[in-house]
Design brief:
single chain, 449 residues, alpha/beta, pyruvate-formate lyase- activating enzyme, Arc Repressor Mutant, subunit A, 9-stranded mixed beta sheet, 3-stranded antiparallel beta sheet, 19 strands
Length: 449
């Protein structure tokens, strides 16, 4: 990225894992509305299930997730009792036992669970839902807390994918973000995953961290590729200390400046491509024969709260404190505070405290944004045709892309736009022109890169 453009487009824009985005959720959609939406779902609708395990053994200072630190297991066990109750309640509001094609454990740190509690959770899901034989069951895995028994339990439950949190292998960077994770620890856990037959391994890396340089990040990329993961996510660190107070422990002077941050993104991405990975959208990389790369080639990639996905289920049910769900009628979000979440569940009520109903216009704009985020190109007329909408209504928005076009970051032919390779990291800025809520809502989003 040219330095002058890096400075010009140093914007804060949504990540567009939903539309409308989370800052526009409100108490107007609560537990009663969510229960009604669940009851209205056709019984054959395929579901995707997300379980938020809201505890970690130690706080990583770069973290932007909803989590709480505990050294004791009793709070985790108590939380899981409530999460299981929530699963029971949500399933009870469905018209019948419905099919589930994806299950995702996120956090926090799912590996804080005991093997027995992990198994019990999977068994409960299988009782309440028709989990497909070929369902993807994915677990976000912290190598520091995943022991061999846990990995063995995962494999025995049919887990198909493990996403390994690495961030950076450099010990100086690890110390600065309070995540001491020697290379050998990661290697041992990956060895167990392969020994017990978990077939798909992802790896998460982060750029923009304190004391990180483009050269040190390349070393991390090369070490990561040595494990032969099927997918690698390369996320930009979002420094939002006004939202996540623990991030104040990271000295801002140690963070890379804007030009270095761009250089890290460019050089790390180029290195992954050299290693044979296909760049998917903004921040994912997959081997050419991976399902995600195939979905990209066939224009059937999607985006949800976990980022880029091949999941085509139209319903995502979120469980746990801060869990977010997506239904045809709109989005729902659970109470984020763990204590309050447990109180509501123990009172026999759904934990949804906010959300947003989607209008036909929202659905149309969501499709426009999703296609641009996933394909890096957008045929406005083709999308509008699927909705029976007049594409001329978006001509003003398309004209609003003139600056990006003039800077060589996208091309436009009539009502079709395509991001250039230099413009790839600014795809969210292009998407923002279709966001009718952005000007009126939350402005404290993460930076464009």
């Amino acid at each position: 990225m040219r330095p002058e453009l890096a400075a010009k487009y140093d914007l804060r824009v949504p990540r567009y894992t939903s539309y409308p985005t989370a800052p526009h959720f409100s108490p107007a959609v609560g537990a009663d509305r969510y229960g009604q939406w669940l009851a209205e779902l056709p019984p054959t609708t395929p579901l995707s299930l997300y379980l938020h395990i809201a505890y970690c053994a130690e706080m990583c200072w770069f973290c932007g997730c909803h989590t709480k630190i505990t050294r004791q297991y009793a709070p985790v066990a108590d939380y899981m009792d409530c999460l299981w109750r929530e699963v029971d309640m949500v399933a009870g509001r469905l018209s019948q036992r419905m099919p589930a094609s994806h299950i995702h454990f996120g956090g926090g740190s799912p590996t804080i669970l005991t093997p027995d509690d992990f198994v019990a959770t999977i068994e409960r899901l299988r009782r309440h839902f028709l989990v497909a034989e070929d369902a993807e069951i994915a677990v976000e895995l912290d190598p520091r807390t995943a022991d061999e028994d846990y990995v063995k339990a995962m494999a025995g439950c049919g887990v198909t994918r493990a996403s390994i949190g690495v961030q950076d292998f450099n010990p100086v960077v690890q110390k600065a973000i309070n995540r001491i994770q020697p290379y050998e620890v990661t290697a041992q856990v990956i060895g167990w995953l392969r020994q017990y037959g978990v077939p798909e391994i992802n790896m998460d890396l982060v750029y923009g961290l304190p004391h990180q340089t483009a050269d040190s990040l390349i070393e991390t990329v090369d070490l990561a590729v040595g494990f032969k993961p099927r997918r690698i996510a390369l996320f930009g660190y979002a420094h939002v200390p006004w939202m996540k107070k623990h991030q104040r422990l990271i000295p801002e002077a140690a963070l890379p400046d804007l030009s270095e941050r761009w250089r890290q993104y460019d050089t790390a991405g180029a290195r992954l491509v050299e290693h044979g990975y296909i760049q998917v959208g903004l921040d994912h990389f997959a081997l050419a024969d991976d399902e995600m790369a195939e979905a990209l080639r066939e224009n059937r990639l999607h985006r949800n709260f976990q980022g880029y996905t091949t999941d085509e289920a139209s319903v995502l049910l979120g469980f746990g404190a801060s869990g977010i769900g997506s239904l045809p009628q709109g989005y729902v979000a659970n109470e984020g505070a763990i204590h309050a979440y447990k109180q509501v569940i123990r009172a026999g009520r759904l934990a949804t405290t906010r959300g947003v109903a989607v209008s036909p216009e929202d659905l149309l704009r969501r499709s426009l944004i999703e296609r641009l985020m996933c394909d890096l190109s957008l045929d406005v007329e083709a999308v509008c045709a699927r909705f029976g909408a007049d594409p001329a209504q978006f001509d003003a928005e398309l004209d609003g892309l003139a600056g990006l076009e003039g800077d060589g970051l996208l091309t436009r032919e009539g009502r079709r736009i395509t991001m250039t390779e230099e413009g790839r990291p600014l795809v969210r800025a292009a998407c923002a022109v279709f966001d009718r809520y952005l000007r009126a809502g939350e402005t404290r989003h993460s930076k464009a890169v």
